[in-house]
Sequence to fold (335 residues):
Amino acid sequence: MEPPATLDQLVADASARIAASPSLGDLRGVEGELLGRGSTIADARAGLRDLGPDERRTMGRLVNQATAVVTEAITARRIELEREETAARLAGDAVDVTLPGRSMVPGTLHVIRQVMDEIVDIFVSLGYTVATGPEAETDWYNFTALNFKPDHPARAETDTLYLDYGDTAEGVLLRTHTSPMQARYMEQHQPPVHLVVPGRVFRRDPLDPTHSPVFHQIEGLAVDSDITFADLKGTLTHFAREFLGPDLTTKFLPHYFPFTEPSAEMHVLYRGAWLELLGCGMVHPAVFEHVGYEPKQVTGFAFGMGADRMAMVRHGVTDIRHLFDPDLRILMQYR
Ligand code: DAH
Fold:
């Protein structure tokens, strides 16, 4: 049995160890060593049963006192450490409300998308339907159905990007214009047709100030039993005035496209200069035949315009490459 002096000594040492415990984890370890199984206090308590009644009472009181002092010291140190750890965590989590905020710049649609939407909306308000078609297109829809002859230069590999699809009977290519949707749509719908087709198109052109291998078009098609070139002129002049200004002058110059006859280019007098805006014409009877329409019973006009070009005209952009520049300092100017 330990003499009381040892217990006193133990309590003094214990208090010092407890006070010096640097963290809650350490304190738990110290607590186990001082009060747990095999500790001097636990052994002294176990030894009480071997003592006579008087000694047991005296020793019992001393052991209880020592236990109480050590327990109290541990509790006090625990409260202290918890307070310190909470304070440290709060200091680490603190938000400096005086820092300048990070403002969110609201996103916008790309200028080309905005202009395409605007153009499509003008035709939708005239009763036109909107459809889109595949970017990977067959030779038939991109060329043959549109009356391109087998040796037409646009079919050359130097102009058109062909896709390697292995053993397909037909050539598969990246569409060079949105016109194939004229044929696809007429195959699926009977006249009257009033259609606009916005979309991405591809040509084997190197990137320069006026060309991009990927660009955007909006195709239009109107087919009914008695549509005339006057309808074409009226509709497209209305469009140009809605898009560029109410007093705009337009003129139609003869041109050639395989799928329209006669064909024309519409030019507009814009800010003092004549500007070519789009291609157009009366749908060629061969196209009607290819889609299963009876050429004697229908007439129609078609048109196609470059959306990128329209965006450039609208925003005074002089180099098409600016439109595809990912630098927001450039793109944000055209909102
Ligand atoms: N597809 C022509 C091109 O990409 C544009 C065009 C011209 C479309 C006349 C038409 C049209 O529908 O009638 O150059």
